[in-house]
Design a protein that fits this description.
With 418 residues, the chain is mainly α. Helix content is 59%, strand content 0%. The radius of gyration is 57 Å and the shape is elongated.
Length: 418
């Protein structure tokens, strides 16, 4: 029994061992049967793809643009200047033989110019544009020293007739500038003989040469016989020649005998010829007033209103004031009302010799032109404030001045009082 049990136990052990072995074999086979995929080799990195090189661009020849010509601007027509209206200014006396002499300044006539305002120009009378367009402007004589372009030296080397024919080709203004040279040539060629001067004039070929010669011939003729020279000048048929000759006769006659010259000019018909002659008489009166203002005064007073009267009256009053201020004031007050009288009063009141400030301001009140009166009054007021602030300040409240001017003057009075 015991042996049987031992055999059974051994068999059982063997069975267990066999099962264990079989189980191990079975597991081994299973492991071997597992589908183990071979390792996949890592893919090689793709080869670097390089972009195909772009074909080189064909060389394009540089195109140089042809120069474009600059546009030529169309010519702009110059504006046509409007005709200049000559400024009406106060005429001054002209003394040919003393033109280069400069008179000393009368310091009595200049007072406190840094205080008093400048005198405004007097309003010019209205000019009819139609009359201005029709009127031929008188030739303007320009001093020879300002005309370097004129052949003065060449003309002086010529004989009188050739010089006159040469000047005939010049403009009116150039011929007027050369008038002194022409007169000297005629005077030298004729020896101051009236007959020789007329013979020279009649021998000239061109009308332009005779026009240039007429004033010079008239001057030579009038030096010996002004009355005969006046008849000759008026007999000339060329208007320009007649105008120049009459003016020169009146000038020469006025310096020799202003009363007779004035009497002759009064007989001339109204117009440019008479106006030029009157200007010459006015200059003659002004010249005479330097040495004999008493004789010149009635001639100046009898001249008609215009430039000649203004020149004569101003010069007579100025020269009379130098010797007798009160007489000058009385004479000016006796004149007929008009522009010449107004200007003479204005000139006198600018000078302290005409009286104290009260008297001068009273005289200013006689100026007929309102603008001139107001401007002169203002100027004297400024002078008074500078000279005597207290007296001027007492007068200002009742002064015939506008309120703005009064206020400015009162400020100056206050600033100058201690």
């Amino acid at each position: 029994m015991k042996t049987t049990r031992t055999i059974v136990s051994s068999w059982q052990v063997l069975m267990v061992v066999g099962l264990a072995v079989a189980l191990c074999v079975s597991c081994r086979r299973r492991e071997e049967k597992v589908d183990v995929k071979p390792p996949v080799p890592a893919p090689e990195p793709p080869a670097e793809v390089t972009a195909p090189e772009a074909p080189e661009a064909p060389e394009i020849p540089e195109v140089v643009p042809e120069p474009v010509p600059e546009p030529v601007p169309e010519p702009v027509p110059e504006p046509v200047p409007e005709p200049e209206v000559p400024e009406v200014t106060e005429p001054e006396a002209v003394f040919p033989e003393e033109a280069a002499v400069e008179e000393p300044v009368d310091t009595a006539e200049v007072e406190d110019e840094d205080v008093a305002p400048a005198m405004p120009d007097e309003p010019a009378e209205a000019i009819d544009p139609a009359e201005l367009a029709e009127a031929e402007p008188p030739p303007v004589a320009v001093p020879l020293e300002e005309r370097k372009d004129l052949p003065v030296a060449e003309l002086q080397e010529m004989d009188a007739a050739t010089a006159l024919e040469t000047v005939a080709a010049f403009s009116v203004a150039d011929a007027a500038a050369l008038a002194p040279v022409i007169e000297m040539k005629v005077q030298s060629a004729t020896g101051g003989s009236a007959e020789g001067a007329i013979e020279l004039f009649d021998g000239l070929e061109s009308p332009q040469a005779r026009t240039a010669a007429a004033p010079a011939v008239a001057a030579v003729y009038a030096a010996s016989d002004p009355a005969a020279a006046a008849k000759w000048a008026l007999a000339l048929t060329d208007e320009n020649a007649q105008r120049g000759a009459v003016k020169r006769v009146a000038e020469a006659w006025a310096y020799a005998d202003v009363e007779q010259a004035q009497a002759w000019v009064k007989t001339l018909p109204e117009g440019a010829v008479r106006d030029d002659a009157l200007t010459s008489v006015g200059n003659g009166v002004a010249f005479l007033s330097r040495t004999d203002a008493g004789r010149a005064a009635p001639v100046a007073a009898s001249l008609p209103e215009g430039d000649a009267r203004i020149v004569a009256v101003r010069q007579v009053a100025t020269n009379m004031r130098k010797s007798d201020p009160q007489k000058a004031v009385a004479w000016v007050q006796s004149l007929d009302e008009g522009r010449a009288r107004d200007i003479a009063i204005r000139d006198l009141t600018r000078n302290k010799a005409s009286g104290d400030y009260t008297a001068r301001l009273k005289l200013v009140g006689e100026i007929g032109d309102e603008a001139m009166r107001r401007a002169t009054l203002t100027q004297i007021a400024y002078q008074w404030v500078a000279a005597d602030p207290a007296a001027a300040g007492a007068w200002l409240p009742t002064a015939p001045l506008d309120e703005g001017t009064k206020a400015r003057l009162m400020r100056k009075v206050g600033a100058q009082r201690p």
